[in-house]
DNA sequence: CGCAGAGCGGTCTATAGCGG
DNA sequence: CCGCTATAGACCGCTCTGCG
């Protein structure tokens, strides 16, 4: 690169650009080059103007020393829009390969990160200079965020990011496989045959068009909205009136959606369609923007070893799983493998293998916590039943089991609720949480905050009569028997689909 | 206690408009 | 044609909050 651009003629002044290893580079970002020249010129007390650079590059391009192109990269906060980045290619570069586009995107990402982290460090330094010891000014304005989050969850939003990514990917795969002319062969039996066909290409599709066909219910689960949804969950997004659609697909929703797409991209399950965008602009909504990768792979993270063994991480063999996503069951198998490899990766180095090295989320157990994944129908039916039963009094254990079974709610998840006795006394308030509900248990409750309230949040406003009666004025503490709390908790278990472990006091 | 999500405040880029 | 300025849009780090 540098050889072709080693001499820059600007305002009759020669600039020599000399950079080690630059010869090996096939491209340079325009912003990178600009910053670089700016730094050089600063030493001379002058500033490089962008237009001057553009003119010079045009001249070099006409001479055939380089090629100036624009590469489209997706925005992080808006899945429907792309950002065009200016790239100067070495004249020897022919067609843009997907690898080169990847490198360009990576370089742009790194450039952004570097410049912004530099700016943030400068800001931090300034803050240190101006900070008044002991004075802490909160710049956060209290808002209705908790209410919004609550409303989103009430609409079925799944907190676990990887579960959202999984559901979204399964939807996209199903969408793409139904596209006319799609090369995903349905119901293939012969491995050799589909391998041959799938080698041909990764099916192209328009992300915007795919999302338009997304069921509202799925949208509420994976993207989320705080909007009150009535009689719309059976529809797909494109069937919604514009106003409703815009309310669902607000800036934040687009941001959340874009982050999911970004993760699918980093998992190499999706690829940005490699189109060279000309000066005239951006492709339309109907044009293919992404391709579905049908041959993804997963590497098992390498087991952690004791330092004494002195074995280099790089020299241990990696176990690799290759998939051919020709059938729904293979898509399921991909996700099960990914979850298994990384969720159980307690004694492994997630960063040692793909995709753990590029998607940190895959190795966070919280990202996979599917405890509260329920369809809206399940959620509403559960609310209805619990309300009905609770009007009649206490809910016996067997009824909880019946509800869980009939609504197909899982009881088989990780233990999350733990009741145990306090070190000395058996009576204390649990972390002020019960206090906030104006009642307390008569024994130790060591459940996390969310567990202590989440289950009654699930069943509706104010607890649907399941809560012990509100204590009268002055009656701040109420003693409950273990059986009371067990019963209540088992409803929670049904509602949340988690285990309850009881540690005898 | 650590993580994830979201808002804020900041920087950077692209662009348009203006005057020299 | 050139350079300056204002503005919008994008997106990061920091921070706070709630969850598990």
From TrEMBL:
Transmembrane segments: none annotated. Residues 370-413 form the DUF7645 domain. It comes from Triticum urartu (Red wild einkorn). Residues 23-116 form the GTF3C1 extended winged-helix domain. GO terms for molecular function: DNA binding. InterPro entries: DUF7645, DUF7647, eWH_GTF3C1, Tfc3-like, Tfc3-like_eWH. This is B-block binding subunit of TFIIIC domain-containing protein. One of its GO terms (biological process) is transcription initiation at RNA polymerase III promoter. CDD domains: Tau138_eWH. One of its GO terms (cellular component) is transcription factor TFIIIC complex. It comes from the Eukaryota. Residues 200-369 form the DUF7647 domain.
